[in-house]
């Protein structure tokens, strides 16, 4: 893989994405996110079952917990997008600059080296 501007840019995006994922988005917000999701689900189920007051209360508490977790979700989404596009940029950058690993040109019929002469002489002697 050759290093060019796209490869360097992709690497920088991946590093920033990983730092946002592990540093900016602390995993402490995952617990309220899960609890909020479960409360919202339970509230919707109760509301559908005819228990409107408890359904609205549970759904409201769960929705507030989910809204409070919104910065965490945005940070995680941003980190994932940065890593994805950084990886994509690195792969495209290396594919454009690297035409092929090793593709020797075929020898022309008119080109004869000293080794070829000696090899032909050796084959004739056999």
From TrEMBL:
Bilayer-crossing residues are 12-44, 56-85
UniProt KW keywords? Membrane, Transmembrane, Transmembrane helix
Q: What is this protein called?
A: Protein liaI
UniProt key word Transmembrane: yes
């Amino acid at each position: 893989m050759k290093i060019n501007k796209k490869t360097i840019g992709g690497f920088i995006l991946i590093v920033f994405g990983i730092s946002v994922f592990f540093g900016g988005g602390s995993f402490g917000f995952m617990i309220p996110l899960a609890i909020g999701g479960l409360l919202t689900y339970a509230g919707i189920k109760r509301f559908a079952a005819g228990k409107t007051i408890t359904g609205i209360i549970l759904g409201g508490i769960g929705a507030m917990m989910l809204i409070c977790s919104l910065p965490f979700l945005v940070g995680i989404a941003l980190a994932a997008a940065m890593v994805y596009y950084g990886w994509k940029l690195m792969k495209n950058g290396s594919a454009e600059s690297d035409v092929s690993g090793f593709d020797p040109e075929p020898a022309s019929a008119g080109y004869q080296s000293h080794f070829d002469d000696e090899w032909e002489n050796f084959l004739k002697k056999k």
